[in-house]
Design brief:
The complex is a heterodimer of chains A (109) and B (241).
Chain A (H helix, E strand, L loop, with lengths): L2 H28 L6 H8 L3 H30 L3 H27 L2
Chain B lengths: L5 E9 L3 E9 L6 H12 L18 E4 L2 E4 L5 H4 L4 E5 L6 E3 L2 E2 L2 H9 L22 H9 L7 H5 L1 H5 L6 H11 L7 H7 L14 H5 L6 H21 L1
Parallel strand pairs in B: 1-5
Antiparallel strand pairs in B: 1-2, 3-4, 3-5, 6-7
Helix pairs in contact in B: 3-7, 4-7, 7-10
Chain lengths: 109, 241
Amino acid sequence: MTFRLYMVQRISALIMAPLVLMHIAVMIYAIQGGLSAAEILGRTQGSVLWFLFYGTFVVAVSIHAAIGLRTVLSEWAGLRGTALNAAAWAVLSLLLILGMQAVYGVTAT
Amino acid sequence: MADKHQMSVSVWRGAAAGSFQSFDVTMEENQTVLDVVAWIQQHADPTLSYRYACRVGMCGSCAMMVNGTPRWTCRTHVKKVLVDGHMEIAPLRNLPVIKDLATDMDPFFDKWVAAEGLHHPTQTRHDPIEAIDPASAARVEVNAGIECINCSVCYAACDTVAGNPDYLGPAALQRAWSVYNDSKDAGRQAILDAVSGVGGCHNCHSQGSCAVHCPNELNPMNAIAGLKRETARNFFRRRAR
């Protein structure tokens, strides 16, 4: 792993940590009185704030996981060079597509 | 007088492609693993190749895998490692085998140089000798690493080296950290750049096998953590400039 990847992975972790805590806190808070899917969507759809919150979360997770899996693939599967980078980009793309699709699904009007 | 009991010792023969050969070795009251290897060469098979020099734990030449664990054989008592009268001796892990128990140490030492674990002088021989405060924080860090005898036990113990042959390894990085903290060294930036490459300190997963197996009870993992910290600091410092 190069220093640049190391720093990007650490910084993405720093971004993720408060977002994870807030995600859990909101989940616990939101279900206190019993909340239906429609009520949740009523709050998230059209909300720029929730789009930015979960959008940032998805980007940070995708980057963090792609770099981590890149290391695992390198050390455990012996992938090197172009094949290794291509696999990491593929993981990043897949997580971004799946994640952003979910973010779009709950925030789009 | 010698105890006439026997032990069975499996010894690696050949290069990378080879196999274990079994020897019956006479057990002595006081006997190190290196004594056993020497006994086999002197009494059973003179073609057995192995490496040693000082026999007192100073030179770092005689490290081998004993029952799968890297050890300095001259300071490892047979009774400590014998299992049911048997032990297995193999060449150090993570290094190319030349023959039998002798490995090619070149990759190990090349990485010391690649990590800039060498002195970068600040002064000439004509300058007065610089006074060093032994209690200064930097000097205390240096002290933690200078007892390394270059035996490569940590390098053989490291799973990250096994998974990534480019990785510089614990010994080279600990050396780089010692030199980095030397107030008489002018190569601080060169060291940080050298340990930030593809095989640099950031590959370390902090598993700690180096610290567990180091015969001198040093902690290369700690030195690597120091390098990670300094490279990260340097990263933000450079950005701020």
